[in-house]
Amino acid sequence: MDAETKRKISLIHIAYGTVLGILFGKYAINVESFFAAMLIGFVISYPIYILTKKFFNTEFEIKEWIVSGYVYFFLSWILFWTLFYNFNIT
Predict the structure, then answer these.
(1) CB–CB of 48/8 below 8 Å?
(2) pLDDT tens digits along 2-51
(3) How far, rounded to the nearest angstrom, does the alpha carbon of residue 8 sit from its chain's CA centroid?
(4) CA torsion sign, 57 to 62 to 68 to 74?
(5) How many CB atoms lie within 10 A of CB 48?
(6) Residue 17: predicted pLDDT
(7) Long-range CB contacts (< 8 A, 24+ apart) of 21-25?
(8) If DSSP states are collapsed to H, E and C, what string results for the chain?
(9) What pLDDT score does 14 carry?
(10) Is the pLDDT confidence value at 87 over 60?
């Protein structure tokens, strides 16, 4: 996979993670452990993996997706989730 495609996939995952992080934080969804958050993140980010495979018409393995998509998704998701959860004014 070329660098331009990886960059686009990463940006899509960051945008998706940002939106979900804001929603999770705004509606005060709480998770007890980091492992549970990683598992939930993997489950909710898997559909975007399938979508990007079809959208870019590329075949990449799950380990390539973890490096170029899931890590970016997870970091932006956790960041915005924490930010909006802690500053949630109810």
Answers:
(1) no
(2) 889 889 999 999 999 999 999 888 887 777 777 888 888 889 998 998 89
(3) 14
(4) positive
(5) 21
(6) 94
(7) 21/76, 21/77, 21/78, 21/79, 21/80, 21/81, 21/82, 21/83, 21/84, 22/80, 22/81, 22/84, 24/77, 24/81, 24/84, 24/85, 25/80, 25/81, 25/82, 25/83, 25/84, 25/85, 25/86, 25/88
(8) CCHHHHHHHHHHHHHHHHHHHHHHHHCCCCCCCHHHHHHHHHHHHHHHHHHHHHHHCCCCCHHHHHHHHHHHHHHHHHHHHHHHHHCCCC
(9) 95
(10) yes
Q: Please give the structure tokens belonging to residue 52.
A: 């990007």
Any idea which residue has 């979900």 for tokens?
20
Residue whose structure tokens are 């005060």? 28
The token duo for 43 is 């489950």
